[in-house]
DNA sequence: AAAGTCCTGCGA
DNA sequence: TCGCAGGACTTT
């Protein structure tokens, strides 16, 4: 479940490796994961130089100097291995890029195929899935965040997962942020004091910063491009800690289903 | 707003 | 062998 910290960690790992490199070949193994017509993307990207890497919400973009930007969304189980020798028999390898003068390839692997590859050519409109994203948590003013949530009627857990409201949160960091802010996942922001929503905003930024500093959370499939794991899963306070004692009060962490997702929380520490 | 769908590996 | 995990999209 790569969320903002995992995608940011990938961006930081790959930026120095890819910036300035020229794409010598685009290999499409599983065209279904590509939103555009694969031929257009191959045509546009071959011979292009990578100008920079970008992150928007949970999307990672390779911005080229002239052609446009190639966007990856890793879904649940997507990976971007940076490999010298490919395993071409690997049934989960769907796409890779080769670079001029370098033996390493940038691969796109995805076991469950929830991931996506999108190409936005220069001058073309931004893909809809990127266009409809809400603001970046680090670009957003706290007052705006409070306003954004206050005008909605739903339960806070579901709202945090809505990428149109704020980009980058998934199930892990929604639960971790709510715990830090001592807010119950079923609480309705319309009924919370503004200062508690403000504290939630601070919690989101804090937990994101800590997770990025730890290379993200490797729960199941998330790995850095060299195959190494992030370390932040060892610092989760509620996610994946069902029936374990709360680190604050010792009460056992509970799990309920909200918006079709498991929500981990402490019923003593987190209130409405 | 909630439920269903996609997909595959894994644990009960 | 079944059901659960979940991001984003579609359907109700």
Structural account:
This protein is α+β, with helices and mostly antiparallel strands and 272 residues long. Helices cover 26% and strands 22% of the residues. It is built from seven helices and eleven strands. The protein has helices spanning 4-18, 38-45, 128-131, 142-150, 156-161, 171-180, 194-213, and strands at 23-28, 50-56, 59-64, 68-73, 78-79, 82-83, 93-99, 102-110, 116-121, 254-258, 261-265. The longest helix is centred in the last third of the chain and has 20 residues, at 194-213. The protein is globular and about 55 Å long. The chain starts with a helix and ends in a 7-residue tail after the last strand.
Quick structural gist:
The protein has 272 residues and is of the alpha+beta class. Helix content is 26%, strand content 22%.
Spans of 5+ residues with little confidence (pLDDT < 50)?
Answer: none
Could you say which overall geometry the principal axes of the C-alpha atoms support?
globular
Report the end-to-end length measured between terminal Cα atoms: 27 Å
Oligomer: single chain
Pattern of helices and strands: HEHEEEEEEEEHHHHHEE
Indicate the structural class: alpha+beta
Per DSSP, the total helix count is: 7
- Helical residues, percent: 25-40%
Q: For the CA atoms, what is the radius of gyration?
A: 20 Å
Q: Describe the biggest sheet?
A: 5 strands, antiparallel
Average residue pLDDT: 94
Strands, count: 11
- How much of the sequence is in beta strands? 15-25%
